[in-house]
C-alpha cells in the first residue's frame, strides 16, 4: 500500500494496469464508507461550533452584531459569576477525589476475595441516569429528618448529646420562652420560668402556660387539669395549659376543658436561688416536692423543657458564615460555604468512582509484576513499593482519569437541574446550566448563551490538543 | 466474572502477596464492606421508597421499614402502570425512551463501523487527518451545538416542510452526531488490531469492499461493536439535556424528562420519582449485567487508549 492514489485522480487510461484500476475502485468504495459519518459530523457538530462562535457576537435574538458585549456581560452578571465559582469548585475538588477513591479502591480490591462483588456494587451507579441519581440523593440530603437519612443520622447523634425538651420552642420562627408565661409565672434568667408567688411547705402553686399546640399535648397524652391538693411538708402544684376554648378571654382560672402539661421538669429553688429538689409533672399537670424543709421557695420550670431539638442541616443550600447585617453582600458571598456544591459532588463521586476504579484496576493489572517483585526482593516495604514503583508507573492512567473528569465536570448539568430544590438552584448554577437557561428557557438570550458555550468550548480545547498529542505518540497510547 | 475478566486480563498469580497481608485482611474486609454498604444505600433507599405508601414519605423515614416491613406495598407501581399508555405517563415515557435509544444505537454502531473500516483498510489520502479531527471532536460539549442545530432544524423545516425540532427524529439525529466521534474512535482502534493481510487477501480474490466489510470485518469486530452499542444505549437512555432541548412541545417524552418533571413538586410526588427511577434503571441494569464485560471494555477503551 505504498502508492496512494487520490480518488478521482486522472491517469492516462492506457497506462493503467488492471491492478491499479481495481485499487481505484476499492478506494472509491472505501472512501464512500466514511461519507455518512463525515456529513453527519459536519452538519451537526462542526458547523454548529462555528455558528455558535458567530452567534456569540450577536444580540439576544441573533439579529444584530454587538461585538464583545456578550463576553463583557459574562463577567459582570451575578448569576454567571456564581456559575464560574461553582465550576471552579467542581474542577478543584471533584477530579482529585474521584481519582483518589478510584485508586484506593483499585489497590485494596486486589487484596480481597470478593473483589468482583465489590467492583460491581461500586460501578453500578454509572448506568443509572444522573437525573435518577440526583433525585435519590436529593431525598437523602433532605432538610426534614423524617425524609433525609443524613439529617436523621445527625439528629440521632445530636439528640444524644443535647436532648430536646418535651415542649420545644421554635426560636427560628420567632417564638420565645417568655411568650409562654400566662399566669403565676414570670421569666427568670437563663430562659427558665419561675413562679411569681413564694411558696412554703404545705402550700400549693399554679403555673399557667400558653402557646402550646394541641398536637404536642396529644403526643404527651395529656389529661384535663385538676386542682392541686395541699400536703403537709410538701410543695405541690399544677402546670396547665391556661387556655380554655370555652372561656378564651379568661386567665388564671382552671377550667374543665384545659389540659395539664405532662412531663415538665421542675425545680424547687431556695431563696438563694439554688435548686433543692426536682420533680416531673404527671398527665394531669400535677407535681409534688416532698419532705421540704421549712422556708420560702420558688418553683421553676427548667429551660431544658423548651430546648428545641435538631431541626436539620440544609445540605442543599448555602451556609453563610457571617451575620447577615454586619458585612456587605460580596463579603457574605465570599464567606459562605456552598454546601449544595459539596452535596452534589458527593452524588457525583457516588456515580463516577466506579469508573476511576475500573480503569485504575486495569492499569494495575497491566503493570509489570517483575518490577514490583524486584522492588520487594530488594527489601522495599509494601508502602515504598507502592509510592516509588506503582505510582510512577500508573501516572499516565491517573492523568487520563483526572483529565477525563475535568472535562466531565466542566459540563456538569443534570445533577444541578435535579438535585437542589428550586430555592437553591441559583446558588448551584454552572456554565452548562446557564447555557440551557439563557438559550432555551424564559427570557431567551441567544448571544449570551452562545458566549458561555464558547467559553466552555475554549476550556476543553487544551484537552482536545492533549488527546491528539497522546495519539501521535504511540508509545503512550 | 465480567469485571474480573475484563480488568485483570493478564494478571499472573501473585505469590507471597496475599500472605503478607493476612493480619490486616479482616480489617480490610470490614472496611471495604462498609464502603460497599454505603454505596448501596441510595439504591436501596430508592427501592424502599417506591414500595412504601405515598402518604408515608414525609411522615417517617424509609429506614423505618426495617422495623415495620408490613409497610411494603406494590400500590405505587400499580398506580403508575394502570395509567396505561397516556402521553406523559410512565409507560409512555418508557416507550419513548426505547423509540429514541434503539435507532440511535443502531445508527451509531453501523456508521462508526463503516467509517472505522474506511479509516483502517481504505487507502485514500488524508485518512489520518480525518481520524485526528474525529478524535478532536470527542470532547466537544453538546451545549456548544444545541442552538445552531435547533436553528438548522427550523431552517430545513421551512425549506422542505419537515421540521425535525420537536420530534423524535430530531433527538435521534443529534444523538447520533455526538455518538459518532467516540464510536469511530473505538471501532477504528479495534480494527487496527486486525491484520491487514486478511483484507488484502480478500481483495486479491476479487471480493468487493462491501462484502469484505459485511462478511469479514463486522464479524471480527463484534466485541467492539457490542461495547459501543452498550455504551451508546446507556448514554442515550440516560440523557436529559438533548431531549429537553429538542423535544420542545412534543407530547411524549423519555424517562429522564418524566422524572425531571416531578421535581417541581418533589415532596408531594416523590413516590412517583422513586417508582419511576426504579423502572428507569431496570433497563440499563439488565443491559449492564448481561454485557458487563463489554461495558467495562468500552470504558477502558475510552479512557486508556
- CATH architecture group name of the largest domain in chain A: Orthogonal Bundle
Mean pLDDT of chain B: 86
Shape descriptor of chain A: elongated
Global shape of chain B: globular
Q: How many runs of DSSP E, i.e. beta strands of chain A?
A: 11
Beta percentage of chain A is 5-15%
Which CATH first-tier class of one domain in chain B would you pick? Mainly Alpha
State the end-to-end distance of chain B: 23 Å
Helical residues, percent of chain A: 40-55%
* Main β sheet profile of chain A: 5 strands, antiparallel
Largest beta sheet of chain A: what is the strand line-up? 2-3-9-6-7
Percent of residues in helices of chain B comes to over 70%
Q: Average pLDDT value of chain A?
A: 84
Radius of gyration of chain B: 24 Å
Beta-strand share of residues of chain B: under 5%
How would you describe the overall organization of this protein?
The complex is a heterodimer of chains A (477) and B (305). Chain A is an alpha+beta fold. Chain A has helices at residues 18-32, 35-55, 69-74, 78-109, 115-123, 130-140, 149-161, 214-219, 329-334, 339-365, 369-377, 382-410, 414-418, 422-425, 431-440, 446-472, and strands at residues 181-183, 185-188, 192-195, 204-209, 235-241, 265-269, 275-280, 286-289, 298-301, 319-320, 336-337. Chain A has 2 domains: 49-146 and 328-472, MetI-like (MetI-like fold); 171-306, Immunoglobulin-like. In chain A, helix 2 packs across helix 16 and helix 10 (339-365) crosses helix 12. Chain A is elongated, with a radius of gyration of 36 Å. The two termini of chain A are 24 Å apart. Chain B has a domain at 96-265 and 283-299: Orthogonal Bundle (MetI-like fold). Chain B is built from 15 helices and no strands. In chain B, helix 5 packs parallel to helix 8, helix 9 runs antiparallel to helix 10 (209-220) and helix 11 packs across helix 15 (292-304). The radius of gyration of chain B is 24 Å and the shape is globular. The two termini of chain B are 23 Å apart. Chains A and B meet through helix 1, helix 2, helix 4, helix 5 and helix 6 of A and helix 1, helix 2, helix 3, helix 5 and helix 6 of B.
Amino acid at each position: 500500500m505504498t502508492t496512494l492514489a487520490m480518488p478521482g485522480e486522472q491517469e492516462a487510461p492506457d497506462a493503467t494496469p488492471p491492478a491499479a484500476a481495481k485499487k481505484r475502485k476499492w478506494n472509491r468504495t472505501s472512501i464512500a464508507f466514511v461519507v455518512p459519518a463525515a456529513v453527519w459530523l459536519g452538519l451537526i457538530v462542526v458547523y454548529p461550533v462555528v455558528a455558535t462562535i458567530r452567534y456569540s457576537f450577536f444580540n439576544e435574538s441573533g439579529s444584530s452584531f454587538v461585538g464583545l458585549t456578550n463576553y463583557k456581560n459574562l463577567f459582570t452578571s451575578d448569576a454567571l459569576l456564581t456559575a464560574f465559582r461553582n465550576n471552579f469548585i467542581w474542577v478543584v475538588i471533584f477530579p482529585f477525589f474521584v481519582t483518589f477513591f478510584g485508586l484506593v479502591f483499585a489497590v485494596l480490591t486486589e487484596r480481597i476475595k470478593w473483589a468482583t462483588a465489590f467492583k460491581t456494587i461500586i460501578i453500578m451507579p454509572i448506568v443509572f441516569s444522573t437525573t435518577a441519581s440526583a433525585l435519590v440523593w436529593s431525598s437523602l440530603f433532605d432538610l426534614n429528618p423524617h425524609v433525609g437519612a443524613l439529617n436523621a443520622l445527625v439528629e440521632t447523634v445530636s439528640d444524644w448529646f443535647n436532648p430536646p425538651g418535651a415542649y420545644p420552642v421554635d426560636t427560628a420562627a420567632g417564638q420565645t420562652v417568655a411568650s409562654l408565661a400566662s399566669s403565676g409565672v414570670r421569666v427568670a434568667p437563663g430562659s427558665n420560668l419561675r413562679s411569681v408567688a413564694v411558696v412554703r411547705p404545705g402550700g400549693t402553686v399554679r403555673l399557667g402556660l400558653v402557646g402550646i399546640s394541641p398536637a404536642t399535648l396529644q403526643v404527651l397524652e395529656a389529661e384535663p387539669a385538676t386542682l392541686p391538693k395541699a400536703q403537709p411538708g410538701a410543695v405541690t402544684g399544677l402546670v396547665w395549659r391556661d387556655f380554655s376554648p370555652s372561656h378564651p378571654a379568661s386567665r388564671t382560672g382552671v377550667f374543665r376543658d384545659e389540659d395539664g402539661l405532662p412531663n415538665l421538669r421542675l425545680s424547687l429553688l431556695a431563696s438563694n436561688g439554688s435548686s433543692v429538689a426536682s420533680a416531673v409533672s404527671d398527665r394531669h399537670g400535677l407535681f409534688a416536692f416532698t419532705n421540704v424543709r421549712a422556708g420560702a421557695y420558688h418553683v421553676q420550670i427548667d429551660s431544658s423543657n423548651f430546648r428545641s431539638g435538631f431541626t436539620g442541616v440544609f445540605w442543599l443550600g448555602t451556609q453563610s458564615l457571617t451575620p447577615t447585617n454586619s458585612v456587605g453582600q460580596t463579603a457574605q458571598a465570599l464567606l459562605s460555604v456552598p454546601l449544595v456544591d459539596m452535596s452534589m459532588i458527593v452524588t457525583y463521586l457516588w456515580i463516577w468512582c466506579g469508573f476511576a476504579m475500573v480503569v485504575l484496576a486495569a492499569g494495575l493489572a497491566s503493570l509489570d509484576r517483575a518490577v514490583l517483585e524486584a522492588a520487594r526482593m530488594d527489601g522495599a516495604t509494601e508502602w515504598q513499593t507502592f509510592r516509588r514503583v506503582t505510582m510512577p508507573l500508573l501516572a499516565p492512567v491517573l492523568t487520563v482519569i483526572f483529565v477525563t473528569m475535568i472535562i466531565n465536570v466542566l459540563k456538569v448539568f443534570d445533577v444541578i437541574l435535579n438535585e437542589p430544590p428550586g430555592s437553591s438552584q441559583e446558588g448551584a448554577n454552572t456554565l452548562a446550566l446557564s447555557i440551557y437557561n439563557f438559550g432555551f428557557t424564559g427570557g431567551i438570550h441567544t448571544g449570551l448563551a452562545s458566549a458561555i458555550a464558547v467559553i466552555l468550548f475554549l476550556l476543553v480545547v487544551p484537552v482536545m490538543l492533549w488527546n491528539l498529542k497522546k495519539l501521535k505518540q504511540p508509545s503512550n497510547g | 466474572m465480567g469485571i474480573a475478566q475484563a480488568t485483570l486480563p493478564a494478571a499472573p498469580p501473585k505469590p507471597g502477596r496475599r500472605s503478607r497481608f493476612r493480619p490486616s485482611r479482616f480489617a480490610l474486609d470490614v472496611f471495604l464492606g462498609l464502603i460497599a454498604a454505603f454505596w448501596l444505600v441510595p439504591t436501596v433507599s430508592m427501592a424502599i421508597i417506591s414500595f412504601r405508601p405515598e402518604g408515608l414519605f414525609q411522615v417517617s423515614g424509609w429506614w423505618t421499614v426495617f422495623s415495620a416491613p408490613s409497610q411494603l406495598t406494590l400500590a405505587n407501581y400499580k398506580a403508575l402502570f394502570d395509567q396505561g399508555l397516556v402521553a406523559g405517563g410512565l409507560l409512555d415515557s418508557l416507550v419513548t425512551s426505547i423509540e429514541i435509544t434503539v435507532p440511535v444505537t443502531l445508527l451509531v454502531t453501523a456508521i462508526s463501523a463503516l467509517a472505522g473500516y474506511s479509516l483502517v483498510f481504505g487507502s485514500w489520502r488524508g485518512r489520518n487527518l480525518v481520524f485526528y479531527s474525529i478524535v478532536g471532536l470527542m470532547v466537544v460539549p453538546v451545549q456548544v451545538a444545541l442552538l445552531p442545530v435547533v436553528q438548522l432544524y427550523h431552517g430545513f423545516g421551512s425549506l422542505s416542510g419537515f421540521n425535525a425540532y420537536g420530534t423524535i427524529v430530531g433527538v435521534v439525529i443529534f444523538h447520533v452526531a455526538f455518538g459518532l466521534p467516540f464510536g469511530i474512535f473505538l471501532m477504528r482502534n479495534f480494527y487496527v488490531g486486525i491484520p491487514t493481510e486478511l483484507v488484502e487477501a480478500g481483495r486479491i480474490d476479487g471480493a468487493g469492499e462491501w462484502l469484505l466489510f459485511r462478511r469479514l470485518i463486522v464479524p471480527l469486530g463484534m466485541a467492539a461493536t457490542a461495547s459501543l452499542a452498550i455504551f451508546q444505549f446507556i448514554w442515550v437512555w440516560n440523557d436529559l439535556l438533548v431531549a429537553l432541548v429538542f423535544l420542545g412541545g412534543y407530547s411524549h417524552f423519555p424517562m429522564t424528562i418524566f422524572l425531571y418533571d416531578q421535581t417541581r413538586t418533589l415532596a408531594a410526588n416523590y413516590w412517583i420519582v422513586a417508582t419511576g427511577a426504579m423502572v428507569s434503571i431496570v433497563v440499563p441494569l439488565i443491559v449492564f449485567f448481561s454485557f458487563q464485560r463489554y461495558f467495562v471494555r468500552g470504558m477502558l477503551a475510552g479512557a486508556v487508549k
